[in-house]
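Field log, afternoon session.

UNIT: design team B
ACTIVITY: writing a sequence onto a fixed backbone
BACKBONE:
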């Protein structure tokens, strides 16, 4: 949940900077996007450290919980391959 909250806040920071640069100051879209990206990154890095770490923990937990589960047959196959490869040396 922290990951989505962090992402939404970073996107909001980006658009808070991007939209005035494009519509009020009439900057080119690429330049405004680059400036908004740098400012949003800097602000989130400096002021949202705890939220960034919590989002990182959420992503890590998500990737650790999902993954291919190896069956006993797969583990036996891997052990046999390891024994065979160790015997070739």
């Amino acid at each position: 949940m922290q990951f989505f909250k962090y992402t939404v806040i970073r996107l909001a920071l980006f658009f808070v900077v991007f939209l005035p640069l494009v519509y009020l100051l009439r900057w080119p879209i690429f330049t405004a996007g680059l400036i908004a990206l740098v400012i949003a990154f800097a602000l989130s890095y400096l002021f949202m450290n705890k939220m960034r770490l919590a989002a990182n923990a959420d992503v890590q937990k998500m990737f650790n919980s999902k993954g291919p589960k190896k069956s006993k047959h797969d583990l036996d196959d891997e052990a046999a391959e390891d024994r065979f490869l160790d015997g070739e040396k």
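LOG NOTE: The chain has four helices and no strands.
NEXT ACTIVITY: expression trials, pending approval
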